[in-house]
Design a protein that fits this description.
Layout lengths: L6 H21 L4 E7 L9 H20 L3 E10 L2 E9 L3 H14 L6 E6 L25 H7 L4 H19 L1
Antiparallel strand pairs: 1-3, 1-4, 2-3
Length: about 180
């Protein structure tokens, strides 16, 4: 069942995320913090399909960290109406390496366009794609810069959400 969230609920969820990230950073001072969320436009942030995709993202990150010799010191998962979130404290002072790995995952996994993976260094500073020389995220529909399309409202929320569902359905039907 799809449930719309209010602006207040979305903002509250973001505040909760920031607080949890800060708590993890303070607890693990020599760690890189990684936050996995879902890039879902519009007021509907959760559904059974989005939850399956989110869970696949968490499994992929777990494998990515293991395969690259990165130790997860702590992780926590939040699942609520306003969205899904998985936070990791990763034993690494090389946050650029961690960001490189997560950008590659976003760009190569069949669901990667839906993953929103933020990486923060030991001081809590976000590491952006620009710092790696990586291209900006592309629009779900037209492949132009996603931020520009979002600002100009080039596509309706319905079109964007339909594309999200299409990506998930395609993956579930064999793109795994």
């Amino acid at each position: 069942m799809k449930e719309n969230v209010t602006l207040h609920e979305m903002l509250s969820f973001r505040e909760k995320k920031v607080g949890m990230q800060e708590a993890l950073r303070r607890k693990h001072d020599k760690a890189t913090i990684v936050a996995l969320g879902m890039n879902i436009p519009g007021p509907t942030k959760t559904s059974p399909g989005i939850l399956v995709a989110f869970s696949a993202g968490g499994e992929e990150l777990d494998s990515l960290f293991f395969e690259n010799g990165l130790t997860v010191l702590e992780e926590t998962v939040v699942k609520e109406k306003a969205g899904y979130l998985k936070l990791y404290a990763v034993k690494s002072l090389d946050s650029l390496l961690v960001k490189r790995l997560t950008v590659r995952m976003e760009e190569t996994h069949p669901l990667g366009r839906l993953f929103d993976i933020d990486v923060y260094d030991e001081a809590g500073n976000g590491i952006g794609r620009a710092e790696l020389g990586s291209p900006m995220r592309k629009c779900l529909i037209c492949e132009k810069n996603a931020k520009l399309c979002g600002r100009s409202r080039s596509h309706t929320v319905e079109e964007l959400y339909g594309r999200v569902e299409s990506i998930i359905d395609s993956w579930l039907k064999g793109g795994r």
